[in-house]
Amino acid sequence: MHYFYIKENNISILFIFIENIINIYIYCISILYYLKINK
Questions:
Q1: Using CA atoms, how far apart are residues 3 and 12, in angstroms rounded to an integer?
Q2: Of all residues in the chain, what percent are helix, strand and coil, respectively (each to 5)?
Q3: So where does this one cross the membrane (predicted)?
Q4: pTM, entire model
């Protein structure tokens, strides 16, 4: 049971990490897009 809980926790941490990476990626793209339009 304890091991299973740790595994679940790692999976949720991984998903949070992936979500953060996606958010950062979108943020960077939107900044680049904004700069491109303003040139």
A1: 14
A2: 95, 0, 5
A3: 12-35
A4: 0.58
